[in-house]
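User: Hi! Is it possible to get a structure for several chains at once, not just one? Here's what I have:
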Amino acid sequence: MPDEIYFLCLLHNVGATSSERSLTIDEISRWTLMEYDKIRENLEKLIKNDYIHVDFSGGAERYHVSVNGIRKVLSMYS
Amino acid sequence: MKVCMITWEFPPRIVGGIARHCLGLAKALVKQNHEVHVVTLDFPGVPMFEEVEGTKVHRVKIELGHPNFITWTLIFNHFLEKKIALLNQDVGFDIIHIHDWLTAPSGMASKHHLNRPLVTTVHSTEIGRARGLRSPDSYLIDGLEWWMTYEANKIIICSNSMRGELEDHFRLPPDKIAVIQNAIDAAEYSRPVDKEVVKRRYRIGPYERLVLFVGRLVPQKGVEYLIKAIPMVIHQHGNARFIITGDGWSRSHLENLAASTGCGDKIWFPGFVSDSELVELTISADALVIPSVYEPFGIVALEGMAAGVPVVAANVGGLADIVEHDRTGVLTYPENPESIAWGVNKVLSDPEYMRWLIHNAKKKVHEEYGWETVARKTSEVYEEVSRR
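Assistant: Yes, the chains can be modeled jointly so their relative placement is included. Here is the combined structure:
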């Protein structure tokens, strides 16, 4: 499984699936135990493919899995 | 009867065939005077409760998460179980009906908590999907599947090929299993569609032939064998164009593979396509290819047959039950690009043969694969387990 898809699954499984439950890079790092650079690299790829959406609130960028991203994750296990 | 149907996917949360199966079955059960409550997971932009043609759909927000998929599954089952217990106070369910291992923990817990019979539909197994048990997760899922079949008062499967798989692997007694084939709403596939307009949306000209794949982009679906067959089809039918719909974790690998064939400009990957668009695409196709390496049923074959599209399917699992070679479609050797190319070329080359297949296939779908039949047989299962 490509790294970014594994990362997408992590975000989905921790519940970051709507703007109200979106996470900052700090929070993502705490959940996934990944380094910031790796997180940014994965996020970039996933945003480009419309699997992740970005919001700006509370002075920080927050990320959550999009509808397409949810379908991508679920397709692995169905 | 008051049925509590538990599923992790229900439209518009559509991943594979389970969502469509649950919707079709629930609607048909309602028509036969059952009260059906579907308990499922939430999805962005969809109400937490709605009534879909008589079916009551309860969506549950999952308040906790976990990076590990299986742990997450156990967590969401806990929330489903709580919802079912609350609903039961008002409804008083007669039957708990689950679909696959993903909702097994809440189904089994509800069986004991509510003291109601449990019916399980097994759409596929981990050992089949993963083509063997090779990882700790696979072993865990396989164990859950065994537990689910052990706890179920009756197991429903969708094809004869699954019977052997379940009896052998889970050591199940034959009388615990009922084979109830899947169904589709064939009327949906007989609506008038301007094929030229649909093809144009995908930059396909009126004289170009559309070869379609519909499904998840995962190894189980065998798309790589279709892609490897494409140059052999193009060699004989230079005007063939290929649309590979769906998404999945092997999508980028498949896109790279398509580019490497030298026919990349004739292959499109539109990603997830809405249900209504999918119906139009299917009706507009000149051939529908199902190259699966594991397919317990293969509802997409029925959709193609109902839409009047010649089906070229791998001779595996439930597909071999549905498609009669040279009569309602063409069966090819699994995992064999040469055989797939042969099948596609065969239907594209002979319009008379194509018409013969379509005629027989449509007749078969209308006669044998209606939701009314599935609902009637499912009701019989409900009655059987309730009597015990």
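The longest strand of chain A covers residues 52-57. The interface with chain B takes residues 1-2, 5, 9-10, 13-18, 31-32, 67-68, 70-72, 74-78 of chain A (CB under 8 Å).

User: Great, thank you!
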